[in-house]
Design brief:
368 residues, alpha+beta, DNA Polymerase III, Chain A, domain 2, 3 domains, nine-stranded antiparallel β-sheet, eight-stranded antiparallel β-sheet, 6 helices, 16% helix, elongated
Length: 368
């Protein structure tokens, strides 16, 4: 194998692809990236047996071939090369020669025969959606994906496509995040995409209007983003009837600036840490919201001027869960809907309903 390419192109490709490479894998080849040179391009792939990423970049190929190189070492070398033109050659012993300007390396490669094939699947549906839109939808929901492997179905988000709308729902037992948008598609389907996969998609997505192609199969999904393709398994199982968990009544309603509320909760959170997890107590009156956090290291108080419709209420929350919900809103003002101290609080836009965040309260102790 022998080719030359631009350092900028190959460096960026490796950075994006190597994110799925396992730091310590059972098979050493899975700690590497597969490089295939043919025609006028090179294909770079990584696969951890759950998620695969592949991309193509332009190159001048004088001898086709393929090799697997240590992802970490190869990335470190490429990033530090002095010149823009990079020459890479592999001999019959898989020794790989990397040269740029006066700098050259010789590193030991691995046979591509040992590298597992990325999944291929028969697609049942395809959907096209603007990159900026799907990026925002995933960002606003993936934070609520569970990290508890005891219930694998909730380590992913439910994607529902119906009536020309895409809805993404994530839930972990303490909070729920739902985002919905209209799309140009007649497809009707529902499937659960691992949170890890969505985070890799986020890393590559741009904010522009270019189309992302989503191909859906019975057990796999792929996201085609410009010259990248991310292939992942789907999660099997029955997703919760999430709609039944969203309160349909309203006892208390408040319109509040999301940033002001977030900053206030963050100030209370300074008294919490990994060992101390006291709830942030929120007392809602007709024209004021009072916040209190009391822990073994001290006590903090704050207040925000508000206008309340409905009942006054006193309720407690895990500060991180509440801050996550507020941080991932995309409107300046949000509407808070409460139904007493033990019912989840709804966070939604002050106008419209394209997203819904649900935060389950913590029970307050007698001292409050």
């Amino acid at each position: 194998m022998r080719f030359t390419c631009l350092k900028t192109d190959i460096a960026q490709a490796i950075v994006n692809v190597q994110r799925v490479v396992a730091a310590k894998a059972a098979l050493p080849v899975l700690e590497g990236v597969l490089i295939k040179a043919e025609n006028d391009s090179i294909c770079i792939s990584a696969y951890d047996l759950e998620i695969g990423i592949t991309t193509n970049i332009e190159a001048s190929v004088s001898m086709p071939g393929e090799v697997v190189l240590s992802a970490r070492l190869f990335s470190d070398i490429i990033r530090r090369l002095p010149e823009e033109i990079v020459s890479i050659e592999t001999d019959e012993r898989l020794i790989t020669y990397i040269k740029s300007g006066r700098t050259d390396y010789q590193i030991v490669g691995m046979s591509s025969v040992e590298f597992p094939d990325l999944p291929t699947f028969e697609k049942t549906d395809s959907v096209f959606i603007k990159a900026g839109l799907i990026k925002e939808m995933i960002r606003q929901t993936v934070f609520a994906v569970s990290d508890n492997s005891a219930k694998p179905i909730y380590t992913g988000s439910l994607f529902e496509i119906k009536n020309k709308k895409l809805r993404i729902v994530a839930i972990d037992g303490f909070r729920l995040a739902l985002r919905e948008e209209e799309i140009e598609s007649e497809v009707e389907n529902r499937f659960v995409v691992p949170g890890k996969t969505q985070k890799e998609v986020l890393n590559i997505l741009t904010d522009d209007d270019k189309n992302v192609e989503i191909n859906i199969g019975k057990r796999h999904i792929s996201f085609k983003i410009e010259n990248y393709e991310i292939i992942s398994r789907l999660i099997d199982g029955e997703f919760l009837d999430y709609d039944a968990t969203i309160p349909k009544t309203t006892k208390t309603e408040i319109i509040i600036n999301a940033r002001v509320f977030y900053d206030s909760v963050e100030r209370m959170a300074l008294l919490n840490n990994d060992r101390i997890k006291s709830p942030v107590k929120i007392s809602i009156f007709k024209d004021e919201m009072r916040l209190l956090c009391s822990t073994s290291v001290g006590k903090a108080n704050d207040s925000i001027k508000i206008s309340t419709i409905g009942d006054e209420v006193e309720i407690g929350f895990n500060n991180r869960f509440l801050m996550d919900a507020l941080k991932n809103t995309d409107t300046d003002e949000v509407k808070l809907v409460l139904n007493g101290p033990l019912s989840p609080m709804i966070v939604k836009p002050a106008q419209g309903d394209n997203y819904v965040m649900l935060v389950v309260p913590m029970r307050l102790n007698a001292e409050g």
